[in-house]
């Protein structure tokens, strides 16, 4: 479970859910959170910090590097990871920093690689090298954030090609998530204003999953083994 951007750093509901059902979570936190608070979060099942730059419009490499520098040293050795939600440009430019971090890195939502960009693009190749070298995970999730119309056959084919390219680079560094409840920001509304959720049928998620992860061995690796290792499930 990950914190949605719409809740910012207000996460009390999620903490209650974790205490009740003993799950795992990556959360959004204020920069001045205390070590004692981090320890309490760890006890409730938190295993990751989400750095959300895309929703706030911070899309340059310097912003990514600053955010990572704040947290990497604090989280090293604690079994946590950093989940980065940022534009492809920002991720590609920050790749040297990402490769040096002492904590695992998860790149959210296909690393925000637009499906219309060819896989040969230098930025994409740089991101795929991070995966191939084991320096980053990529989460296969929220196809609607990288494809204008995921139900379009041509875009669905490009999505599948992108997902399979990521998995082929390093099957141990791919993750999957539903992105439920499919938050949205409707045109003209501020981040603080309420937008309607996207209507994403479960059948589409199931079809995407089987298109992206075509065999049972790969599905077990991505859906079971990788998250178990990353989140520390016993």
Automatic annotation (TrEMBL):
Record has Hydrolase as a keyword: yes
Annotated Amidohydrolase-related domain residues: 24-233
GO molecular function per UniProt: hydrolase activity
Top-rank taxon, per record: Bacteria
Keywords, comma-separated and alphabetical: Hydrolase
SUPFAM superfamilies reported for this sequence: Metallo-dependent hydrolases
Protein name, UniProt field: Amidohydrolase family protein
Biological source species: Bordetella holmesii CDC-H585-BH
